């Protein structure tokens, strides 16, 4: 496998973007699918658009590749406005979930197709197709003459990527290319895709509804909600400092507590039964309603004599093995549960216990 290189191009204000999206809006009749979206992608960056179903990812991607025109706003490729440029006139290429391979052709001929269109000689086409198949971990001796219809879903996905790379585009766009594959293959291909992006230094713009997938591969991630960007940044930044409860919840299993500030650094936690008084990591005006984010791994079982920023008595309802870690579902009051994750050696003892967390491990978020 090609070793991942450490070069990580990240867009900053001083860099010239390969692609710039400036105040782009797309309306279908009265409905606004993409609403005044702006961002820049750096040359060689792995950039991912992520969001729930209907958030506008595909519409945005279709505009980036030229299949839709923005209602307002500008799309600039290397500084040139391309709003009205047809897809086949753009130096970009799209890899679809539905693959769009030619079923009557062999793997080799599918990969060579873009080279044949460009009029390259047969021997050169073959050499390049062999190189690309090797890059995609498809042994050319086995796959070059195989018909694509005889390939598995994962193999076809690799062929589609090899063919897209054969176009040698400036930017490769991906619309949920791995969503039809089983979880294990998806994880393998995610890592391979990242390695390929690093070794080819191509700009990848990827669309997925899975933030986990986005986090694994991307240099930067833009999170969409209802046609607007909620947050944009490096995966670590987003994980450490989600802008609001939507982003935090979208990242997977987190605990989000409904709180009402009492003034200063205390608040009441609305558990649905009796409110519990909590200490906050920062002061809030009395009466302010917020969410308090605590990650499952930041919660711990408190031994007698041990202290923490907050402690609450809980009852353990269930526990699940996650391999080296154990996940607990604990009840604070009936109907109010929290998720806790601890290392196997830090297992809870007994059913009724005390749970706690340090104030620095909690964050106050807007809803
Ligand atoms: N051609 C169209 N005409 C009218 N409405 C459309 C059209 N295309 C998309 N929409 C609407 O725009 C919104 C965004 O759709 P889009 O396909 O971009 O979302 P998405 O985030 O890609 O969703 P998914 O993950 O389900 O594919 C949806 O409410 C959709 O119904």
From TrEMBL:
Alphabetical list of InterPro entries matching this protein: AAA+_ATPase (IPR003593), ABC_SmlMolc_Importer (IPR050093), ABC_transporter-like_ATP-bd (IPR003439), ABC_transporter-like_CS (IPR017871), Mo/tungstate-bd_C_term_dom (IPR008995), P-loop_NTPase (IPR027417), Transp-assoc_OB_typ2 (IPR013611)
Single Gene Ontology BP term?
A: quaternary ammonium group transport
Note whether Cell division occurs among the keywords: no
Pfam families membership: ABC_tran, TOBE_2
> What GO CC annotations are associated with the protein?
ATP-binding cassette (ABC) transporter complex
Q: Spell out the coiled coil positions from the record.
A: none
Instruction: Report domain ABC transporter positions.
Output: 19-251
Q: Which SMART domains match?
A: AAA (SM00382)
Report the domain of life of the source organism.
Bacteria
The protein's UniProt keywords, in alphabetical order, are:
ATP-binding, Nucleotide-binding, Transport
A GO molecular function held by the record: transmembrane transporter activity
List, alphabetically, the PANTHER family matched: SPERMIDINE/PUTRESCINE IMPORT ATP-BINDING PROTEIN POTA, SPERMIDINE_PUTRESCINE IMPORT ATP-BINDING PROTEIN POTA
What is the official name of this protein in its record? ABC transporter ATP-binding protein
